[in-house]
Design a protein that fits this description.
Order of helices and strands of chain A: EHEHHEEEHEEHEHEEEEEEH
Largest interface: A-B, 64 and 64 residues
Number of domains of chain A: 1
CATH class of chain A: Alpha Beta
Number of strands of chain A: 14
Largest sheet of chain A: 6 strands, mixed
Oligomer: homodimer
Distance between the termini of chain A: 52 Å
């Protein structure tokens, strides 16, 4: 619990809440996430991040299974998040399987505030078997004005592709919320952090913005998830890190109040030192 | 020393040799680098990476000092590297202060093979006080065909800007050589690796290519350098890491032989999973 007396007028408390969804059981998972949101509120959170696919689980064998666990943006899980966000005057970002027009299925994340849905993101980079269950996202990387700064979202493996963080930074994001279902990396040396933490640190540092990434835990159809949620400040280093089970981490951050300090960082300014004319960012030319 | 019997026909041994240059003393520094190259050759190296600004030192107060320690591409240090590369049939990449036409001064790196200079790179992202001593690089990120694969270069802080690695990957690089003068990060938590290692791991992993980064050690005008050179394989994880003093690290890698395995990596394919249409990679739009 953060003492409100210590907070500047633009500071907020961001929380990442780890859950272990039940594959296909939207009702149970929705209750689970609402309970997690209330737990984060009790810790003083203003913004709560939930895992990827928090509403329906992740390990779908095919599109039929994925569709059965998907819902439109007006679905029951998002309604429940809107309700609890309004009730407690907080913001929630969580992942859900989205059923869209024409039978499209997206691995999506929503940003919900006290007045309802504020932003929708559809995972651009599908990982592994997700290609069997979802269509690739088609909304780019939206950035939304909120009372606590400009906020964008990405989902899990998107963080492995540096254009994700960069696109959000170019659009002015102060804070990135990253619902995730992080898995173990098969080659991680014992003395190195999880690859997910390296990607969050590199993304936050190179883009001089805050990142709050919430990952699920548990095992689903043999796939293990590591939890290990992380909140990084704009230098990339962690403000809070979770273990591998049910847990809520919180950190106080100041996305708006830090703008000048971030832009004028006396050590590294990798967002502002870019030289776009020198880059090649198109399709791979040779292999 | 790597047993040649274990090596595939396309494998090479890459080395990173740490030196502690003397500010402004090109002759002593050239001798120092030639000795380091011979040391790496004795360990079986085919490709040797030297630090950034290995010929003249780094901490120049102004352009006059930088100019006094700079040399053209035909200068004595590069001549010495050509000589030793020819003599031992090896390749060398090292950093040098470059005096170019019209009084321009670049923080440059060269790739020298047995037949002489093969590629020139000029640091695109100047860090901190380097802006007082050098002009920003104007050659983009060249990638050169060699007998052991397509090779590109970047220098130190370039690695903090993900477009550097990405531009090289887009141009088809199998291997990035990174002469560096890494400094301590003021906020590094005790249980996290140096930020430089995170940037190398993220760059190598997200671009599915090998990275060999050689950093200097020592203290120059109060600026400490951490050594800690690192060779990463195409998963990003370290094959070899150095300490903070005089040291040569080596690793066997197979940039050409791994092309198919890299492109078809069954776990993560972040270079090939890119979706360029979804990105915004221009100038920052808002802050």
């Amino acid at each position: 619990m953060v003492d409100p007396g210590e907070r500047s007028s633009t500071s907020i408390v961001v929380a990442c809440a780890q859950t272990d969804p039940i594959l296909g059981d939207i009702e149970a998972n929705t209750d689970m996430t609402v309970e997690a949101i209330r737990g984060a509120v009790a810790l003083g959170a203003d913004v709560i991040v939930l895992p990827e696919c928090a509403s329906g689980g992740w390990a779908f064998a095919d599109r039929a299974e994925s569709a059965a666990a998907a819902q439109p943006l007006t679905g029951s899980t998002i309604r429940a998040w809107e309700q609890v966000a309004m009730e407690h005057n907080v913001w929630v970002s969580g992942g859900f399987g989205e059923k869209a027009d024409g039978g499209a299925l997206y691995n999506s994340a929503v940003l919900v505030g006290p007045n309802g849905v504020e932003s929708l993101y559809r995972k651009v980079h599908l990982w592994n078997s997700e290609n069997l269950a979802f269509d690739p996202g088609n909304l780019g990387y939206p950035v939304t004005e909120t009372p606590f700064g400009r906020v964008g979202m990405l989902i899990c493996y998107d963080a492995w592709v540096p254009e994700s963080f960069r696109s959000l930074a170019v659009a002015g994001a102060d804070l990135v919320l990253a619902p995730s279902d992080w898995v173990p990396n098969p080659h991680q040396p014992a003395d190195m952090p999880p690859l997910a933490h390296l990607m969050v640190t590199a993304g936050a540092h190179s883009n001089q913005m805050y990142v709050a990434a919430a990952s699920r835990y548990g095992i689903e159809r043999g796939q293990q998830f590591i939890g290990s949620s992380m909140i990084a400040d704009h230098t990339g280093w962690p403000l809070a890190r979770a273990g591998g089970g049910e847990e809520i981490i919180v950190a106080q951050i100041d996305p708006i109040g830090s703008r000048s300090a971030r832009r004028n960082d006396p050590f590294n300014r990798p967002l502002w030192d870019r030289r776009v004319s020198q880059y090649e960012m198109g399709e791979v030319r040779a292999h």
